[in-house]
Amino acid sequence: MKIKLTTLVYLLVCLSFLPVFLKAQDKLVYKDPSQPIDSRVKDLVSRLTLEEKVSLLGYQSKAVPRLGIPAYNWWNEALHGVARAGEATIFPQAIGMAATFNDDLLKQESTIISTEARAKYNLAVAKDKRIQYMGLTFWTPNINIFRDPRWGRGQETYGEDPFLTATMGSAFVKGMQGDDPRYLKASATAKHFAVHSGPEATRDKFDAIVDEKDLRETYLYAFHTLVTNGVESVMSAYNRVNGMPNSINKMLLSDILRKEWGFKGHVVTDCGALNDVYETHKTLPGPVETAAAAIKAGIDLDCSTVLQEDAINAVKKGLLTEKEIDGALSRILRTEFKLGFYDDPTLNPYHAYGADSVHNDAHIALARKAAQQSMVLLKNDNNILPLNKNTLGSMMVIGPNAGAIDPMVGNYHGTSGKVVNFVEGITKTLGPGTRVEYDLGCDYKDTVHFGGTWAAGNAEATIAVIGLSPVLEGEAGDAFLSESGGDKKSLSLPASEIKFMKELRKSCQHKPIIAVITAGSDVDIDAIAPYADAVIMAWYPGEQGGNALADLVFGDVSPSGHLPLTFYKALSNVPDYSDYNMKGRTYRYYNGPMQYPFGFGLSYTTFNYELKNGPKEKYKLKDTITTDIQVKNTGNMDGDEVVQAYIEYPQIDRMPVKELKTFKRVSVTKGGTQTVSIKIPVGELQKWDMSTHSWKLYPGNYKLVLGSSSADEKLGLTFSVNK
């Protein structure tokens, strides 16, 4: 049979398009960046066997070569800089960043952290090193409420206030995750969910008993805010809440986090938390039942091996379905797609970051600025500070923490060849024309032998750097010199340091002594304050702490840090450590004696507030309280003021004494003014109603208090609220 010429031409044309058609078919949906992420995830999941799916549910995710899935280690830390991964910029510890009351600065910091993270990831992948601490999924920030000063890990938090914690935590997340509409720069994690603030020694087994009101108003507030602001991941805590381990807690992980708040990211366990379910909590008989319960409750990724080793057995026993495993896997794969793991790297705006993006001059400069703003001036008798470096002929820098690295870097830190300790910072600033001496002075134990006191007596001024270090307080296991599993037994500084300060005072007589305290929380300042003319709380200030201290001591910068937690007079004034009720805790519910109130911090200058536009007399739920004030610098040098806005509530049972609802840091030149606008949504004044199990706006008379600490009232403005 003959074929017509036109038919033959048609067939030849069709055949010419066949390679293009076949190539289009070969482009798998999950590898096609033009497809929606959910479609790509669904396609990839459909191609995996059950064994392959389960192999991806642990933090040491296995490779699936046939589908181009590389091995990946999810465990990375970045509390105040990329941690445990070699060279990185080391910023002040988180509690110090909270003391800045500067969320914009913290966002700049976390933007730098994610830049360095991307660079280090790119460099590691180029060497095919897909190892722990070199990835892009960071288990930071820690937004637990620092409810008790004994907690060693309180240094990792943003303090005792839910609003400050939520604001700083949200800023950190935004900088970490970036603002690209398509790709995450890095993945942030809100931890530890929930009601987790020590004791460290029993964290794997303790049961936090808390009612709905404290749970909602205090312990969940910051988590809800970070979810609203798009945090990619949430980490479940080790402990139980009201009898149920967090990592199998359906009420928290599913009902509240996903259904009520609409969380779309993935949930990871704290490391070994699933093992704790059956080994220490003894809630379930073994790992198979735990694997099933965890996935059913809402866990997606396991920082151990329980899911990888026992999820298949749970399916075989009928405790779990493959569809439920698909749900967990889909959520962690979605994060990987958002990070660009399955795309051509050149499509990602962060693919070219390299070694020059790590620990460069701009990053170091921001670390110095952060340290400057984090330090809190607690005492300055007779305005002894700032010292005049131009007339100073000699200085002594002394103390166990003056030349050490640990008190600079805190816990969960990177490494740097440019850590500037306090001795180095002071010496460099004063230069070769000033005599600077250094001595260890004392250690953390010996209460008899001291050094350098005679030399200090020969100097015109002395800086004594004392306090704690991360080996005395921190995470269980890491703080190996702690006498209580990482926590503090008391607020006391080491007895050796107190005796040393007494001896130093005797030697220096009427010469200035500036005490610099390193610690991650409240310590007993009163014990050493009589022997010092000035006291500076330096926290763990990061790699530029020495330079920042010099900037403050010699007046290049006015101190502007404010305490993110209450400094109590004594632990006898607060409830038992294991008590998770908020009554009698933090400035929100505490009326007892204190050394320094929440929000406190001195300056070298003074500020005056003047009302421009006051609030209305009456408000309803959908309104916003708006007030404008003028802040005037009435002192003799430029400085930053932190305007803090507190709400005092109607006299109703279990209302807070007062509560921070917004704050604003402003820079004001000597003699100058700045206008500050205060805006507080009335919805933020709602409290949890135990009878209806919902938020309620209580009608009544309220007061807006503006000042520079929770105990300061520069302006007090009353208003009423109706439903």
* Unreliable residue runs: 1-25
* Structural class by SSE content: alpha/beta
CATH topology of the largest domain: TIM Barrel
For this structure, what is the CATH homologous superfamily of the largest domain? Glycoside hydrolase, family 3, N-terminal domain
Q: Quote the average pLDDT.
A: 95
User: What separation lies between the terminal Cα atoms?
Assistant: 90 Å
CATH architecture of the largest domain: Alpha-Beta Barrel
The CATH class name of the largest domain reads Alpha Beta
GO molecular function: alpha-L-arabinofuranosidase activity; beta-glucosidase activity; xylan 1,4-beta-xylosidase activity
Family: Belongs to the glycosyl hydrolase 3 family.
Organism: Mucilaginibacter gotjawali
InterPro entries: BXL, Fn3-like, GH, Glyco_hydro_3_C, Glyco_hydro_3_C_sf, Glyco_hydro_3_N, Glyco_hydro_3_N_sf, Ig-like_fold
How does this model look, in words?
Strand 23 and strand 24 form a beta hairpin. The model is unreliable at 1-25 (pLDDT under 50). It contains 20 helices and 26 strands. The chain has 723 residues and is an alpha/beta fold. It has a six-stranded mixed sheet, with helices on both faces. It has a five-stranded mixed sheet with strand order 18-26-25-20-21, with no helix packed on it. The protein folds into three domains: 29-357, Glycoside hydrolase, family 3, N-terminal domain (TIM Barrel); 371-596, Rossmann fold, CATH 3.40.50.1700; 607-721, Sandwich (Immunoglobulin-like). The radius of gyration is 28 Å and the shape is globular. This is Beta-glucosidase.
